[in-house]
Fold:
Amino acid sequence: MSDAGLSAVTVVTILEFILAVYSVALVFNTDKKILKIVHIVLAVFWVVLAVLNLVF
Structure:
């Protein structure tokens, strides 16, 4: 990763934002209410982790 100029923290943060977007997409494509809630919680979880990686 040092060849591309990206640190491990940057890569993890990008992947967490990708997972958050994926969870939001699953919310819109899921019919069951409980699965929507689970995907919303996961999306919030991934965003919080990504923001914490940016701050710390």
